[in-house]
Structures are given as C-alpha cells and as structure tokens.
Design a protein that fits this description.
about 400 residues, alpha/beta, Rossmann fold, binds pyridoxal-5'-phosphate
Length: about 400
C-alpha cells in the first residue's frame, strides 16, 4: 500500500491475506478521487442538499448560565438521519460508486451508522446488508425499522456479547467471502488502514466548519473542544481542525459505564492496553492473556473495546486528554440538557455534555467550550425511560 497507515506505533492493517487487495484498491481509489474536482463537487452537493450541511454552531444560553462558562454546540444532531454518521457514509458511498461497486455492507452499534448506510444504499441504488448485534437490534429497534424501510437487510448477530464488536467480526467474515463486488462501509475512524484515514477525512467537515463558525461568531478560537469517543470518528472529525492550535484543549470522553473500578465499561484510552483487533493496533480492553473483555455502556454506539489509532497517538503524545464518565452522569445530563435547551442529545453525545457539566463553576466565565453534539436522542428515549434515576 502507498501508506502503511501508522499513527506512531498504532494502526496498520492486520487482516487476512484475502482482504489486502480490497484495502489496496480502496486506498488507491481514495487517493485518486478525494481531491478530484468532480468528486469534491459531488460530495459537497450531497453534504449540503442531502445531509443538511453546514450544521449550526449554537450558543447554549441556559446551559452556559448553569455551568458558568460559554458552551457552543456543534449541531450534528440536525443532520439527515440524526447523527454525524451520514458525513462518512456519503463520502464512502460516493467512493464506492466511483469504484463501480454495486453492493455495500456495514456494521452498526447504535444503528446510526447502519441507518446512514441504508439511506446511502437507497440513494445510490446499491444492495445493502447491515450487521448488528442482537442486543443492539433490541435496544435500538427504531433504527432497525428505519433501515429496513430504506430497503436494507439487517442481520442480527448472536455471537459473543451480541454488540458492536461481534457485528464487526461478522461483517469482516462476510466481506472475506464476498470481496469482489462488495464495498465494506466502515463506520468509525478505526479498523484496518485505510479506514482511519478515510473516515477522518469524510468527518473533518465538522471541525472545518466549527473552527470557521467560531472565528466568525466570537472572533477567536475556542479554549476547549470536546466530543464523545466510541471508535472515534466524530471526535477526530472535530479535533482535526484544531489539532495544530496548541492553545485549544481537546477532550475526548469515553464511556465509564458502571465505573472504571468495576471493569464494566468501554474506556480503552483510560483503562486499556495496546493490542490488535479488527485489523488495527490500538488501546484495547483485554485481560492479562490478551482475551478481549466484555464491555458495557448505556450507549450502544460507544460500547466497543477498542478505539481509533489516531486517538491512541493523541493520548500518548498528550495532545488530547481522554476522560471517562459513568452511565448515571450520562442519564442525569440527558435530563438536565433537554430541560435547559429543548434539545434531546444522543446518549453517546451526552457523555461529552456530562464532562462539561462536571466542570460546572470550575472554569473562568469567559471560557469558550465547543461540544460536538454527534447525534439526537430520539432513538434513546425508551432506554432513558427504563433507566430513569429515581
Ligand atoms: C450519535 C453517535 N455519536 C457517537 C457515536 C460513536 O461513534 P464515533 O466514536 O465513531 O463517533 C455513535 C455511534 O454509533 C453515535 O451513534
């Protein structure tokens, strides 16, 4: 391959031999088209007219008053489909179309990537299969209905913990035997090279817009940019525009589930060890024998034992700070933020809001924080209702 896809010691492409030609073909197509004027124009049209870009940067007045500093919200929740995932799916879908692929597959956790893939499958008239853990099929059933309405086949995966990790295993297994005509649309900035690079590129519109909007609105850069981190695509998408601005603090928020001490969480940047899974070297939840640990999070989209390789490097070189918040804090902020602003945040995005809330009255009043609101919480209302804090 042109590039070995390394971020320091992290990344790479640890995949069965049979997948190497497909990844090489994808890498070559990406570098051929990503700056091609026609491709760029087509993608811009789709971003603007189909997905609803640019998304606003909204000043959250009442939430800011509550926490004692200035909070701006990057409204990825307003995109078609309800989350940032559509940015990446439109990019990869267009690439698949330029590569003349006719079938797409994807994994999904919260169902947002599965839904975005299904929308794009319908849009481009491509046969679409979505692999989803059976627990996630149940807890994110609304999204499953929507995927089917778009014409996708949803395959419920019953192996392992029946969540995102197992859906990826199954999708990779399927791709291995159907690699010739099928494009695997990976949903986050993780997995084998070239996915971390491709996904970051297609999500970097979030950061580019947010940086410009912040300069236009308040005439300076933010002090802090924060986002939740599952595989890491929405976070790397917004961080990418600020990573060279050394005075902008970058805070990624992982799911601490029932608490780091309980071991029931999915916070590899806080409590994982370096290992290899799904084709990439990264921080990973594993036991002393290298067995992958079962993870738990109230948010299906963050319930993954690994994390994108670029975040691992940003952690090690201390350019970004990675913290973790527990399920109870997530449920609490879902309620507080919704009542303050009339905006339902996805449980995934609620992690970054919960971290902001934990800083209440601890930061100077003129501190400017941008929160990437990666998705809307409509899909989560049943979970919130079932887990209501008494
Ligand atoms: C709304 C939302 N935010 C965040 C995530 C986590 O993914 P990533 O870390 O790739 O942004 C998901 C995953 O499904 C999601 O649905």
């Amino acid at each position: 391959m042109k590039n070995n896809g390394r971020f320091g010691q992290f990344g790479g492409f640890y995949v069965p031999e049979v997948l190497i030609p497909a990844l090489e073909e994808m890498e070559a197509a990406f570098y051929k088209f990503y700056k091609d004027p026609q491709f760029v124009a087509d993608l811009d049209t789709l971003y603007n007219d189909y997905a609803g870009r640019p998304t606003p940067l909204y000043y959250a007045t009442r939430f800011s008053e509550l926490v004692g500093f200035k909070v701006y919200i990057k409204r990825e929740d307003l995109l078609h489909g309800g989350a940032h995932k559509v940015n990446n799916c439109l990019g990869q879908g267009l690439l698949a179309k330029y590569m003349k692929k006719t079938k797409i597959i994807a994994e999904t956790g919260a169902g947002q990537h599965g839904l975005a893939t299904s929308m794009v499958g319908a849009l481009f008239g491509m046969q679409t299969k979505i692999f989803m853990g059976s627990i996630d099929v149940e807890r994110q059933s609304v999204n499953v209905h929507k995927m089917r309405l778009c014409g996708a086949e949803v395959i419920s995966v019953t192996g392992g913990t029946c969540t995102l990790k197992d859906a990826i295993n199954e999708a990779l297994r399927y791709w291995t035997s159907n690699v010739a005509d099928t494009f695997y649309m990976f949903g986050t900035a993780c997995g084998p090279h070239p996915y971390p690079t491709i996904v970051k590129h297609f999500q970097s519109c979030i950061g580019t817009e947010a940086r410009k909007q912040c300069l236009e609105k308040i005439g300076k850069l933010p002090d802090i940019v924060t986002a939740c981190v599952g595989g890491g695509s929405n976070a790397i998408g917004i961080f990418s525009a600020f990573v060279n601005d050394k005075n902008v603090k970058l805070v990624g928020v992982e799911p601490a589930g029932k608490g780091i001490a309980t071991g029931k969480h999915a916070a590899p940047l806080n409590a994982g060890k370096v290992g290899i899974l799904h084709g990439t070297k990264m921080y990973l939840m594993q036991d002393s024998d290298g067995q992958i640990l079962d993870t738990e999070s109230i948010s299906a989209g963050l319930d993954y034992p690994g994390v994108g390789p670029e975040h691992c490097l940003l952690r090690d070189n201390k350019r970004a700070e990675y913290v973790a918040v527990e399920d109870d804090a997530v449920l609490e902020i879902f309620d507080i933020f919704t009542k303050c602003e009339g905006i339902l945040p996805a449980l995934e995005s609620s992690h970054s809001l919960a971290w902001v809330y934990s800083q209440k009255n601890k930061l100077p009043a003129d501190t400017v924080v941008i929160v990437n609101l990666s998705g809307r919480g409509d899909k989560d209302v049943d979970i919130v209702e079932r887990n209501k804090i008494k």
